[in-house]
Design goal:
Layout lengths: L1 E5 L1 H4 L3 E2 L3 H13 L12 H6 L3 H7 L27 H10 L3 H12 L7 H8 L3 H42 L1 H6 L5 E3 L3 E4 L6 E5 L5 E5 L7 E3 L7 E5 L13 H6 L1 H9 L4 E2 H8 L3 H13 L3 E6 L2 E6 L1 H6 L10
Parallel strand pairs: 1-5, 2-6, 6-8
Antiparallel strand pairs: 1-4, 3-4, 7-8, 9-11, 10-11
Helix pairs in contact: 2-8, 4-8, 5-8, 11-13, 12-13
């Protein structure tokens, strides 16, 4: 049993948010263990190719065996920041990269490898003080190669759950919402009790916030992050996933990916990275990565106007969308 004590101050600081880092780590774990998700299926060849990357390979060495279960280093799933969800992943990566060495050692020795057996490569990264940065670089590489295309669709599912939870709070109060999160969660009025056959933990959130994060890829499991009260997160399965089946990509989306196809569609008129980021609800870094791929493929060109760089679809881009060269779509 995991018991989380919420004082009145902490109860007032409970908030809902999506965690792109948590979803990406779960997808990576599935790929590393050769598993399929019960709803989203096989991570695919791009995910398996990403596993060969030096930093991604190091990251997989600290993930517990199994499809989704086991201890996950807190540094890999920092709580989502307060504020708009755009750019959340980039901000989570910044927190990951800045994880102090003593926290890295504590999580590895006490959490992931309490009985020893730490891989040689992991020890070497700790010794040269590159572990946190390499974890950050590895997750970013995996996101760009294998997960970023999925995130927009997954976030839609998670946002729908957040809206439903917000409505539940408005109509029934936060206590009732907490008690209805999952069959293994109950609310006593002062303590959140999470059934667990493995862990026996007691956490006192005296003034600290608790972040509730729905998960699509972790469905149907719960995950509790409670080692550090300043980074307390409860990840619960998003509602309505039992009957959900994603629509497989077709046409250009299947060839270049859903996000890049959508960005290409938007470039019938010249747009900046900032504008594309807002239109597609993707971080500027993710948009820049996709634009780089489209530029190298000859589907997009760019020009500078004063201090702003604008991108525009080329004739090849029009042809890829099945448009005649004189047709532009904004």
């Amino acid at each position: 049993m995991i018991s989380v004590h919420l004082t009145g101050h902490s109860l007032g600081r409970v908030r809902l948010a999506t965690s792109p880092a948590s979803e990406a780590v779960t997808w990576l774990r599935l790929a590393a263990n050769g598993r399929r998700h019960p709803i989203y299926g096989d991570p695919g060849p791009a995910a398996r190719l990403a596993l060969r990357h030096r930093d991604v390979a190091l990251l997989t060495q600290v993930l517990a065996p199994g499809s989704t279960g086991g201890y996950t280093l807190d540094l890999l799933t920092p709580k989502p920041p307060i504020g708009p969800s755009t750019g959340d992943f980039d901000r989570q990566l910044q927190v990951m990269a800045q994880t102090p060495t003593e926290a890295v050692v504590r999580q590895l020795c006490a959490g992931r490898f309490p009985r020893g057996g730490m891989p040689v490569e992991v020890r070497a990264a700790i010794k040269d003080d590159t572990f946190a940065q390499r974890m950050t670089d590895g997750l970013l590489h995996f996101w760009r190669v294998a997960f970023g295309e999925l995130w927009a669709g997954i976030r839609t599912t998670l946002d729908a759950d957040l809206a439903a939870k917000a409505t539940a709070i408005g109509t029934g109060g936060i206590g009732r919402m907490l008690g209805a999160l999952h069959a293994e969660v109950s609310w006593t009025g002062s303590h959140l009790l999470i059934s667990s056959g493995t862990y026996q933990e007691s956490l006192d959130l005296d003034g600290e916030e608790l972040v509730l994060c729905p998960t699509a890829l972790g469905w149907p499991r719960l995950a509790v992050q409670c080692c550090d009260p300043r980074d307390a997160v409860l990840v619960y399965p998003a509602s309505g996933l039992g009957t959900q089946r994603p629509t497989p990509p077709t046409g250009l989306s299947e060839l270049v990916g859903t996000s890049r196809a959508a960005i290409l569609q938007d470039l019938g008129v010249a747009r900046s990275t900032t504008e594309l980021s807002a239109r597609r609800q993707l971080s500027p870094a993710t948009v820049s990565y996709h634009l780089g791929v489209l530029l190298r493929s000859g589907l997009v060109s760019r020009r500078r106007e004063h201090r702003v760089v604008l991108c525009h679809r080329t004739g090849q881009g029009d042809a890829a969308l099945g448009l005649p060269n004189d047709v532009l779509q904004g």
